[in-house]
Amino acid sequence: MKNFSALAFLAGCVLLVMPVAPATANQEQAAIKAAEHFLFLVDTGQYAQSWDETAGFFKNLVPREEWVRQLKALRPAFGRLLKRKIRFKNSAQKLHGAPDGEYLVIQYATSFTGKREAMETVTPALEQDGHWRIVGYYIR
To answer: pTM for this structure?
Structure first.
């Protein structure tokens, strides 16, 4: 799992979050929807498509082929999704190692058949075209 953790870090994993005022309800819902769609793609083995849902910042750090290779090697060990629930969410404008912008850091308490207690952090960012796309994914 260390390789995946390193990849997630490279992809913009949140190490330091500078709290800001909460996003509007509509923005927050759009960000959560983007995160959940991304997670669905990962859960169903659609790794290349999950990369397609990431932000330009992520794509510049992690080539598509590397993302797919890492997920194919590591994600199946977690098994099938049993349940996932938002544990924490926080709006941020500054993330360690990422450009300033609009982010929503979402932490999920997740249970898989192969790992009953996992923590997933998904970070969508609001891109210039008005769409929320993923800049970070970390699972432990």
So the answer is: 0.84
